[in-house]
Amino acid sequence: xxxxxxxxxxxxxxxxxxxxMPVFIFMTLFQPILWLVLFTQxxxxxxxxxxxGGGSYLQFFAPGVLVMTVLFGSAFSGFGMLWDIDxxxxxxxxxxxxxxxxxxxxxxxxxxxxxxIQALIIIILALxxxxxxxxxVPGVLFTFFLLSLxxxxxxxxxxxxxxxxxxxxTVMAVTNLLTMPLMFLSSLMMPAALLPGWLNxxxxxxxxxxxxxxxxxxISNGYIWHDLWLSMVVLAALAxxxxxxxxxxxxxxxx
Amino acid sequence: MEYAIxxxxxxxxxxxxxxxxxxxxxxxxxxxVVGYVGPNGAGKTTTIxxxxxxxxxxxxxxxxxxxxxxxxxxxxxxxxxxxxEVPGMYDYLTPHEMLTYxxxxxxxxxxxxxxxxxxxxxxxxxxxxxxKKVGTFSTGMQxxxxxxxxxxxEPDNLILDEPVLGLDxxxxxxxxxxxRRFRSEGMTVFLSSHLLGEVAEVxxxxxxxxxxxxxxxxxxxxxxxxxxxxxVDVKFLKPLSQEETEKLRAIELIRxxxxxxxxxxxxxxxxxxxxxxxxxxxxxxxxxxxxYHVEGSGLEDYYVSVMSEEKGAT
Lengths: 255, 314
Known about the structure:
The structure holds two protein chains of two kinds.
Chain A: H1 2-19, H2 22-42, H3 57-75, H4 78-87, H5 89-94, H6 100-129, H7 136-165, H8 168-184, H9 197-202, H10 207-221, H11 225-253
Helix pairs in contact in A: 1-6, 2-3, 2-6, 3-6, 3-7, 3-10, 4-7, 6-7, 7-8, 7-10, 7-11, 10-11
Chain B: E1 3-13, E2 19-29, E3 33-37, H1 44-51, E4 59-64, E5 67-68, H2 73-77, E6 80-83, H3 95-105, H4 110-123, H5 139-151, E7 157-161, H6 169-184, E8 188-192, H7 196-202, E9 205-210, E10 213-219, H8 220-227, E11 230-236, H9 242-250, E12 256-260, E13 263-268, H10 272-284, E14 289-296, H11 299-313
Parallel strand pairs in B: 3-8, 3-9, 6-7, 7-8
Antiparallel strand pairs in B: 1-2, 1-4, 4-5, 9-10, 11-13, 11-14, 12-13
Helix pairs in contact in B: 3-4, 4-5
């Protein structure tokens, strides 16, 4: 009970601090808009290559924007932990009877909440731009569920990384090294059919691809349960591994 | 004897082989104000971090209100208010929001939180800033806010690591007054500081730490008597003439005279009765005394002598 209460207080405090930062608000709103509009305009002519029936690149790419937003937003959330360490905020919290794990849990949950808000903005914008959601509201909620697992796993991992490395430059370098290949070694930006053979092999061990495939099915193709089950299992495993890593780092390195 | 804060053969070794604490045993009585002094790297902050649950000792024990801080940290931390390192806080929160959060963490009721926020902010003179964002605060104000946070839950014990670091003279005075007030309310205060003058002003006892070991621990009064040295700061109405300065030197209890314009620092044997006699002699000499302040106990000299002995011994 104390864990839940403390996690709730920290989540609220974190969200309150974030929504008071004008730059943060602007980036939260503007970034998904930028990506959706920019990429779909740049790759508009790829619509004819989407496969039987054609379809627009926008319809194809909208799920990718969702996954990309969550990936980058969660992967860089560890910088908040670094700030807390460098400014003494973390010490201040640790020198209280707060449930220890709630400190990292609250931060991760706050990150996921913000990312889901961004995802909602993208979905609304996509609808306005003409994207058709095949599975309707239930499918959107299911998409949010998959995105939450993705965000949870990467946010926890990012916070753990921050506790392990404790230096901004190093965390930045490692995060870039992970996120960029993960994004490009998937069907996030291009249909699988257009990817080279070796990449199709690699994407099968890339959790980002499972997130993209799941989201794309829910938005454009319908309930393809084989894909959706795989997405849920892989993303749940990612969340478990990420949370385990983050928790371990917090317990051992939060001094 | 009930001790508020106690450590028993505390040892802390870091993974790089550095030994920060090498068998530190402290006993701090309830209601005592204890200063913890030593050079940089002596282990002061390490001790404080162990007492506040931020670090685990390599061996030994730390107790607050007889609760083992390592084994039952959350229970121990309920009895502690701490000010550690820099006053980090979220710039975009107000004091009310920040203190409300900490109040909830300390499991205080909503009414109690609201009452204590008002009381503590008034105590640290930040009442007018209750709903203004912390990012607009000066260093001194942020430091006062962290003190408010430390006492919000009315702890028995206050642990302060360099409480006046980065403050201007006004800020230092304010913190000093707060510590005096906490002492009068029966709180146990354990503070580390480099400013020996401040330690001499507010502490009952001083513990000297060097290279992870306690090298000396004694009351301020005993140190003063032992050093047989004290200093009085006197302010006169007008700058002193040569003749008036000679009058000062002629007072037999005064060992040294350092005059600057209308102020003088007078060295003497440190005994309270001697300072009384000096004041009487000054008045009898028709010198217009505006203020008379007994500065301390020669703590600085004692510190230097203790650390020099320690250096010689090693």
